[in-house]
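Chain A, query sequence.
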Amino acid sequence: MRAALFYLFAFLGTGALAQEEGPLTSLSLDLNGDGLVEGFTLLISETGEADLQITKTGGNDIYAVGLGSTGPGADQPKLAIRGDGQITITSHHDAEGPIRWTEILTLGFPDGSYRITGYSYVWWSENDLEIFGFCELDLRAGTGVIQQNGQPVFELLTEIPALPATMWAATEKVMPIDCP
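Chain A, predicted structure.
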């Protein structure tokens, strides 16, 4: 239980502080390492999907659909810069239904293209604190961890590649069991 709560607060802890000022939906960072700062902006559609627009790439702008989501009463997706210089796109649903969840996609620039390099998913029951879980996948390494309901952390291998950001939503992915 302690390990799960650690992961839950590790994923959600900084986000809760950032939301007091409102979600960060755009930022600037030299992610591709060319010495010029790119612009990253989440565009929220009427359907609640969040698309990512990347500008000032040194080439054409990039538009990646469906990298975040929102819904009635849910928080707006947000961007953040990780300590390793990658960007996270966080969707947090803590508004309706018995199961609440947070999904975090990590965007990096390995191999010369903008790719989803990590996937994290944390879920918990609003009604029973003993019902919770998380999964975290490192898509570049092909590894991950899963835990549910206080059981030991399970390490796993995954065959989901670090897909280009523009292909993430459109590509069918076979997620490990218990990792939605």
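Helices lie at 2-19. The chain has a mean pLDDT of 85.
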